[in-house]
Amino acid sequence: MEIKVDLQQLGTSFMLKVEPKYTLFFVKTIVQSRHYIHKSNQCLTKNGHTLRDSFTLSEYDIKNNDSVTLTISGPSPYKPYTIYYKVDGKERDSIEVMTCHTIDYLKKDIWYKTGIPVKCMRLRYLTYLLESGSCIADYNILPESTLSLEADYS
């Protein structure tokens, strides 16, 4: 079956192929993989009622061609914003990112600005070591945040 997902904040909608047995958490996972909106930034509602992640579409009586509303919290995945990075705790510079950007993409952008080889970079945000294959949304890196960049040439 298909459901219509309305993104009121962006003034658009899309159809999503689903099964009645899918939980809302799984539906959010599908939305994340196709539209780069991290699960933790998604709130699904129907008729003004928030849909809980652990319930299935059938438990909410959501049928073929029904509509649900998706509200995005946090930065929009489609709108760039500025974050900062400090190289070895010294110089601070800014970079434009989107929540759907990967850490690899971020490192390449920093390489263009600093000349530090990607393989020598260790990026940290709060207590997290930012891993290749992850995206900015996975770490909930917000606008104006500062990352620590350690250059390890060994």
Automatic annotation (TrEMBL):
Residues 1-77, 81-149 form the Ubiquitin-like domain. InterPro entries: Ubiquitin-like_dom (IPR000626), Ubiquitin-like_domsf (IPR029071), Ubiquitin_ubiquitin-like (IPR050158). PROSITE patterns: UBIQUITIN_2. Pfam families: ubiquitin. It comes from the Eukaryota. Gene3D superfamilies: Phosphatidylinositol 3-kinase Catalytic Subunit, Chain A, domain 1. SUPFAM superfamilies: Ubiquitin-like (SSF54236). This is Ubiquitin-like domain-containing protein.
